Amino acid sequence: MYEILSKKKLNNNVEEMVIRAPYVARRCEPGQFVILRVDDEGERIPLTIAEYDAAQGTVSIIYQVVGFSTRKLSEKKAGESIADFVGPLGRPTQLHAHKRVIGIGGGVGAAPLYPQLRKLNDMGVAVDLILGARNKDLIILEDKFRAFCKNIYITTDDGSYGTKGLVTDKLKELVEAGNRYDEVIAIGPVIMMKFVSLLTRKYNLKTSVSLNPVMIDGTGMCGGCRVTVGGETKFACVDGPDFDGHLVDYDELMRRQGMYKTEEAHACKIGLKG
Ligand SMILES: Cc1cc2nc3c(=O)[nH]c(=O)nc-3n(C[C@H](O)[C@H](O)[C@H](O)COP(=O)(O)OP(=O)(O)OC[C@H]3O[C@@H](n4cnc5c(N)ncnc54)[C@H](O)[C@@H]3O)c2cc1C
Ligand code: FES
Prior knowledge:
- There is one protein chain.
- The two termini are 21 Å apart.
- The strands form 3 sheets. The protein has a 7-stranded antiparallel beta sheet, sandwiched between helices. Strands 11-10-9-8-12-13-16 form a 7-stranded mixed beta sheet, sandwiched between helices.
- β9, α4 (142-146) and β10 form a beta-alpha-beta unit.
- The chain contains 9 helices and 16 strands.
- α6 (190-202) runs antiparallel to α8 (250-257).
- The chain is α/β, with parallel strands linked by helices.
- 26% of the residues lie in helices and 32% in strands.
- The structure holds flavin-adenine dinucleotide and FE2/S2 (inorganic) cluster.
- FE2/S2 (inorganic) cluster is lined by residues 215-218, 220-225, 235, 237.
- Residues 215-218, 220-225, 235, 237 line the site of FE2/S2 (inorganic) cluster.
């Protein structure tokens, strides 16, 4: 069992939990994830490692409450435990000692982006950030990013905070104003990563994205997480989750993500557990 040391709401729908998991904390690196089960009958949920402290043996996860299992996780309180917390899984992000990088975090995508940008800052890279969300309440982790990012630009779809518009509008404005970046790291909804990649391809600007197809075992055996990258089949759990944004078949990924919508929406009327 893995003890929940603390739990905090980041907004109405997103929460952060710090879990005691010394084995994971000692070995993990930015870009990796865990698969957890809330209890013995629970589904497996992949979640990115948002922060880790090897000395304390702790790992933070930041999750959006979207369905059955994340709701069950959200019902847990500090001091209680969860059944499984397996990791670190996936390949660590390849972080390069560039001069200047810009991160783009869409909604809860800010959580997986955080450890990558913080590590780049530790490596001496100048880091800028665009944080985007539908509205002000959905912007998370702004204070944590402010601690090290050189420039932070906020965009909201409804204009309730920062500039009204999409993250791609801000990126276009920055690049066309003469800002030079060696790499863009974009993490958020698939549609956002698709449009960021289409834009950066025009500027010949290296782009890394983090993919979140449905995962089951997380070890390359079930094939559930397959994605097409550069015309080849890859398993996001072992070959990723980070890939070259210019090579990903986003339309196929969106189609595959929609495949289980009916099952996910199904509310059991005969009392079977989720
Ligand atoms: C590598 C990876 C890292 C992730 N990191 C985060 C994170 O840091 N924070 C966060 O909030 N979410 C993250 N996710 C998504 C998270 O796993 C899903 O939101 C969660 O599994 C939903 O479960 P549910 O039962 O509450 O919702 P459901 O009602 O079952 O599903 C809601 C939506 O979640 C997605 N989903 C459901 N099951 C899975 C699954 N087994 N694998 C992947 N996606 C699934 C689907 O898009 C689905 O439409 C990550 C996914 C992957 C693959
Ligand atoms: S989750 Fe099964 S192969 Fe990746």
